[in-house]
Amino acid sequence: MNQNIRWQEILNKEASGIDKCDLGKIQQINDDVIITKKGLINKKRYVLPKKLVDSFDGNILYFKIMKAEAKQFQHN
After folding, report:
1. DSSP states of the chain as a string?
2. What is the pTM of this model?
3. For a disulfide at 28, which of 35, 48, 57, 76, Cβ 3.0-4.6 Å?
């Protein structure tokens, strides 16, 4: 995990996996997890461990997961 990320700056930013899978917008940041929400009608919520964060480019927070792996972090 990139220790140089200023967590307060990632709120409302986009989240993505390493294969450019869309993980939605960051809604909440807790001690160990980041919660994102995706979609307007068929909403999906992801609860992603901070330890899976790869990098932040100023606009998108990248996680070290692929689309197939993201399903295990999906909550309705």
Report:
1. --TT--GGGSTT-EEE-TT--EEEEEEEE-SSEEEEEE-SSS-EEEEEEGGGEEEE-SSEEEES--HHHHGGGEE-
2. 0.90
3. 35
* Whether domain 7-75 has CATH 1.25.40.10: no
Sheet holding 14-16, edge to edge: 53-56, 60-63, 14-16, 22-29, 33-38, 44-49, 74-75
C-beta of residue 8 within 8 angstroms of C-beta of residue 27? no
**Two structure tokens written together for 37:** 């929400």
- What tokens were used for 66? 């692929």
